[in-house]
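batch_manifest entry 22 of 60
target: SDR family oxidoreductase
source organism: Altererythrobacter arenosus
requested by: lab member K.T.
priority: normal
notes from requester: please return tokens only, no post-processing; we will run our own comparison against the previous entry in this batch. if the run fails, retry once and flag.
--- input ---
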Amino acid sequence: MAGRVAGKMALITGAAQGLGAAHSALLAQEGARVLCTDINGDGAAETAAAINDALGAGTAFSIQHDVTDRSHWDAAVALARDAMGGLNVLVNNAGIGVAGNIETCKFEDWKRCYAINVDGIFHGCQAALPLMREHAPGSIVNISSIAGLIASDTMPAYNSSKAAVWMLSKSIALHCAKNNMQIRCNSVHPTFVDTPILDGTAKHHNLDKQVLLEKLARQIPLKFVGEPNDIANAVLYLASDESRFMTGAELKLDGGISAM
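--- output ---
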């Protein structure tokens, strides 16, 4: 199949919905085989089934996957080898936000935020790199957030965990380059995107979803909230050989927020 990532083999975490589902679908449309993983195994299977319905059987696969559990990572990487023949694109998309400022945030929530947002990438890269080296050139794409670069008084766990993703990505990039692995690593930093996460945000604040979207849009210089494919297009670029000279970098998709 022709496409910008034709022949690539990609594993995407958090693929049951939202950004992860969009990344999976677009990479597949552009020629990759994709392994969709999520702690919601049924949701990951639905994403893969939709891709196969559109593009043909054997394009997408799925597995239930807790990114905080190294044994789950080992199983996912083994499935990538068995089902797709290898792995050369890893999209660490799974992530959560937690409520609470520095005085009200519960330590259990803090630890869970770090376990998913940061430890998941640590485990994933350790598990995936040996197989990725066999199928280089490769690309690791870590989904951070503009909140990893710009702080808020209301979300210290999310801010600091996404900042850790940003710097961890640079360290991984330098390690791979120093050891001539031909594997790049970059981070992506979106602002507000219209995904199911915003449904929960609206409910938490007792707001209609449309009212929330309008409120968020007013904070963005471009005056609109992003769509999942706005982020997936960036992931596609980083997964492709078009970005072969880009590593250890951060790609900000924030509608201009960080320029203010």
